[in-house]
Amino acid sequence: MAPTPKKKHSHSRSRQRRGKLKLDLPTLTTCKNCGKKKFPHKACPHCGSKN
Asked: 20: helix, coil or strand?
């Protein structure tokens, strides 16, 4: 059987742990050809250039 915790974690302690689980926005770069945002190391979805 798994051990059980002796005391309950406080709300602030639980929320501090959960605060690190947030999702980050993906990094985007500017296309050199058309100037729109695109994912790095991928072809531009707007103009199709590979720069």
From this structure: helix
Model confidence at 20: pLDDT above 90: no
What φ, ψ does residue 8 adopt, rounded to 5°?
-80, 140
- Phi, psi (5° rounding) for residue 21? -90, 10
Nearest to 51 by CA among 14, 40, 19: 40
The residue type at 43: A
37: phi then psi, degrees, rounded to nearest 5: -75, 140
Residue 11, CA distances (Å) to 14, 42, 50 in order: 5, 43, 49
Residue whose entry in the numeric block shows the structure tokens 């050809």: 33
Q: Is the pTM of this model over 0.90?
A: no
